[in-house]
Amino acid sequence: MDAADTKNSNRILAGLVVGIAAGGVTLAVGTAWPGVLAGARKVSEAVLDPFGQVFLRLLFFVVIPLVFASLASGVAQIGRLERLGPLAARTFGVFLANMVVAAALGLLLMNALNPGGLLPDGAKALLLREHG
User: Fold this and answer.
1) Cα–Cα distance between 97 and 91 in angstroms, integer?
2) Could you tell me how far CA 112 lies from the centroid of its own chain?
3) Which of 4, 6, 89, 106 falls 20 to 30 Å from 14 in CA-CA distance?
4) CA torsion, ordered 94, 96, 98, 103, to nearest 10 deg
5) Contact, 26 vs 40, CB < 8 A?
6) How many Å apart are CA 36 and CA 98, to the nearest integer?
């Protein structure tokens, strides 16, 4: 890892720490003054959410062509097409195993942690109505 990678890693870590601290301060202040929490929620929905959506769309915009290009480059570098069959089978097998492990881990964590289990009934109904 060179100096630029270390610098970027440190920036990401610093951003994570600042985000956690800002969230903690907002929740602490919101406990004393609920209006602050409502205002923070409005700012988050109006200002920060669009940036997050743009970031995710840009990420998909880059990742999908990158995956296609790496697969196409790998196939082109093989040279002999008779070697493509076993490679494709192994690639599909690894992909399938990865997908099974990811799905099992996701289901296990969802059932163990029960995300949203502590939400009030009104909030659950609102979320299910908007996204259900």
Assistant:
1) 10
2) 20
3) 106
4) -170
5) yes
6) 43
